[in-house]
Structures are given as structure tokens and as C-alpha cells.
Amino acid sequence: MSFEEGDGGRGPSNDGLPPLREVIAAHDLAAKKSLGQNFLLDLNLTGRIARTAGSLDDHDVLEIGPGPGGLTRALLHAGARKVTAVERDSRCLSALAEVAAHYPGRLEVLEGDALKLNPIPGLRRPLRICANLPYNVGTELFTRWLTDPVWPEGAPCPWASLTLMFQREVAERITAQPGDNHWGRLAVLSQWRSTARIAFEVSPKAFTPPPKVWSAIVHVTPLDAPRFPAEAKVLSQITQAAFGQRRKMLRQSLKQVSPDPMALCAAAGVEPTARPETLDLGAFCALARALSDQRAS
Ligand code: SAM
């Protein structure tokens, strides 16, 4: 099921706040390409994203890039206990202050760059992360959440779910299976200790301004334990080295992380002449364990 086109934010709101198109005009929020600003103005769509996140009334929510506040409003309207939102564009703050006033004590906006400002350690649990991510920092943030140092092996995951808008091609890379064209680093990291699925696709027409490509909402839930043991940081390094040079054999590409890639492959039971797209999740975790052992010896 996909979301094709909504009312463009002109329709009446369901929350007593002005329609988003009026908010954008009143606060002079012309979208900036440099900040990845493709706004969602249709409350049917933002409501659907909030519902995809799961139950909210017993959860806090972290949102990255609230912009004029469309998704923020949907999350609060759906009953989120509290939303903490990190926004880099100071022009959006006055519009968001109106949302905060409408939902007293339930919206905190932090001005800053989400790549530098990580409020997760201080946020109340259970915590869901829900965002229409800026495309230029989306995969970096996603990778960080999956390999967060506050989520070492055996510890509970800091978030109960991730519900995130990505370009559709990125969503396909996150949910790809071994052997698929899109199988790569994002699929390995997201499937190692979580389950990721595409909830629905979103037409470019649903955004203002419309991007060139389709998007998709990805919903990720953590597993109780990883599918295979490995250190998150080391798995991240192995996949970066292997897929960063995906045409090369592992004995070549893994030189970036190990002085002896042949011994690494032997210890992991992996052919050194293999290319990364032929390896499954278990093989990457075996390589990560072998690299941890090599470093420890
Ligand atoms: N949530 C809004 C919506 O759905 O209409 C806006 C989404 S828009 C795709 C991305 C938002 O992220 C923009 O508001 C932009 O200013 C903000 N943004 C861009 N880079 C950021 C960063 N590094 N840290 C925090 N926010 C950022």
C-alpha cells in the first residue's frame, strides 16, 4: 500500500492548530534544499506514520527534524507521552513553540544538529524514534542508532522502535536479503539485532516541495538478542570496509581493518576470494568476531 497524494496541507486540522500551509506562510518557512527540507503537510499521512510507530501514550518519542511540525503534531495528537525534537533550522522554532503551547509539557524542542546533539541517553524509556529524516543525514543517524555504544551486547536497546522516512532505494537497502541487489552494509547492520520492514511507500507528490524519487516508511524493532554474537563497532567497521569496495575480494578490501585479512577470513571460515554481496549475516558476524580476537591477541 502506498500514499499517493494528500490535500497538500490545505485541509482542516484535527488538532485545533492551523493548517500546515498557513503555518508555513505565517512563519515564512520556504523549504531549503541544503537542509533536506521536503515537508509533509497532509495530516492523513502524518497520522498514518504516527500509527505505524505503534502505541504512543505510554512512550516518549524522539523526532529528528520536526520542521514546521506536521509529524510532531501527529505524534502528540496520537497521544505521545512526550516528544523531544531536534531541529537545526532556527526559523522553525516559533512555529514549534505554538505546538508546544498547545500541548503543555509534552513537546521539548532542542535546536541543533542531530549529528552532534544526541539526547537519547537522557530520555525517558520506553522511547520510540520517529522522523521524516533529512535525506543528507538519514543513513548516518540510522547507522548510529543501530550501533549505539549505549546498546552494547546483552544490554537492552535504548529504543523500542524506529519509524523513519527514507528515500525508497535506501529503504530497500535496509530491508534487502542476501543475494538481493541491495544487500549491503545497511541490511547487515539493521538485521543483525532488529527486524526491519517497509511499512508503506510514499509518492513524491505527498511532499512540499516534491523530491525527485519515491520514499518509504521503514519500521524497525529490536530483537531481544542479536542473531549472531558480534561487537557493534567491529561489525560496522567490517561492513564498511567490505562494502566500501564491493567489487574487490575480501582479502583485498579487509586490508583496511586488518593487517592479516587472510588469517581473518580463515578464522571466520570465509573464502578470502569471496565478494561481500555473497556473504550472509552469519559470515559478517564471524568476520567481526575474528577481527575482535585478532585485535585482542
Ligand atoms: N518533519 C518535517 C515534516 O515531516 O514535514 C520536516 C522533515 S524534512 C524532510 C527534514 C527536517 O530536518 C527539516 O526540518 C530540516 O531543517 C531538519 N534538519 C536537517 N538537517 C538536520 C540536522 N543535521 N539535525 C537536525 N535537523 C535537521
Strand order of the largest sheet: 1-8-10-7-6-3-4-5
Structural class: alpha/beta
Could you give a short account of the major beta sheet?
Answer: 8 strands, mixed
Query: Going by CATH, what is the homologous superfamily of the largest domain?
Result: Vaccinia Virus protein VP39
Shape label = elongated
Strand content: 15-25%
Q: How many separate structural domains?
A: 2
So how many helices?
A: 11
Helix content: 25-40%
Structure description:
This protein has 2 domains: 20-222, Vaccinia Virus protein VP39 (Rossmann fold), CATH 3.40.50.150; 232-296, rRNA adenine dimethylase, C-terminal domain (Helicase, Ruva Protein, domain 3). The protein contains 11 helices and 10 strands. It has helices spanning 20-26, 43-53, 70-77, 93-102, 138-146, 168-175, 185-192, 232-244, 250-253, 261-268, 281-296, and strands spanning 2-3, 39-40, 60-64, 82-87, 107-111, 127-132, 161-167, 194-202, 207-208, 215-222. The strands form 2 sheets. It has an 8-stranded mixed β-sheet with strand order 1-8-10-7-6-3-4-5, with helices on both faces. The chain has a two-stranded antiparallel sheet with strand order 2-9. The protein binds S-adenosylmethionine (SAM). Residues 35-40, 64-67, 70-71, 86-89, 92, 113-115, 132, 134, 137 line the site of S-adenosylmethionine.
